[in-house]
Amino acid sequence: MKKLYILLFFVSLIGFNALSQTKTISLTETTQAPEKANYQAAARFSPSKLRKIIYSTAVDHIG
């Protein structure tokens, strides 16, 4: 019976520890605004520009 109480104690301790580590956001805490889109940088990876530098996207399976 004593082993059962010890086991229940440790299980409740682990559960309390997990609950106490959860993050809550308070009203005074500020969040960062998302960054603005950079369309100029994204244009470098457009399909028409990638076609010029990528010969093939095929993958050869060895073995």
Could you explain the architecture of this structure?
The protein contains three helices and no strands. The mean pLDDT is 78. The chain has helices at 2-20, 39-43, 47-53. By secondary structure, the protein is mostly helical. The protein is elongated.
Key features?
single chain, 63 residues, mainly alpha, 3 helices, elongated
Q: Report low-confidence residues grouped into runs of 5 or more.
A: none
**Would you list the SSEs in sequence order as H and E?**
HHH
Please tally the β strands and state the result. 0
DSSP summary: helix tally: 3
Overall, the morphology is elongated
Please state the average pLDDT score.
78
Task: Give the topology, please.
Elements: H1 2-20, H2 39-43, H3 47-53
State the gist of this model.
The chain has 63 residues and is an all-alpha fold. It has helices at 2-20, 39-43, 47-53. The longest helix is centred in the first third of the chain and has 19 residues, at 2-20.
